[in-house]
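To: structure subgroup
Subject: Chain for Friday's discussion

All,

I'm putting the inputs and outputs inline so they're searchable in the archive.
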Amino acid sequence: MVFMKLVAEVRNEQGRGASRRLRHAGKVPAIVYGADSDAVAVTLDHNTVFHALKKEAFHTSILELEVAGKTEQVVLRDVHFHPYKQLVLHLDLQRVSATEEIHMSIPLHFLNEDVSVAVKKQSAHITHVANEVEVRALASNLPQFIEVDLANLQAGQTLHLSDLVLPAGVKLEKLLRGDDAAVVIAGGIAEVADAEVVSPADIPAAKGSDE
């Protein structure tokens, strides 16, 4: 899914000095690579990139990049920020192919946690073991996020990767390697309360009662 279009210019000057001059001019140095083509150094408008990076979808979507009148699809692979200034220093953009699967980290969106059975009726505590997952998919099938519905989650229950409902054409990297890792765990108060219930048969008889 294409999220937005970026317009870039070819960058002819290289080196730290050239990069500093570009940043002072409101530009962000970037590199575009992959898809069996040569890497190309480009520049992007800093303010456009800075505000786009605040949006989750920018990190997980297919982006349209226009360079010298030619448009290609890319994904954001890496971003470098200044240690303390609100300044983007550099971007790595990878070209994608319509016929080759790509690997991406996709965020998990948890739904109905506050009204789940575990929380609402059993006073359990829910722990998010993972907030994102590594997926493999064609660019056309890549989701911006994966929803995890917790409405029916019970105290003491663990949701694993194999429990996730995936969009068509999307596979989980860990599952492909045989690792069905935990995603969410519901435990705590409800389980402890049950464990502390004492059976009448366990209560000692009062003194003077029949033995």
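Points worth raising on Friday:
DSSP finds six helices and 13 strands in the chain.
Residues 102-195 form a domain with the RNA Polymerase Alpha Subunit; Chain A, domain 2 fold (CATH 2.170.120.20).

D.
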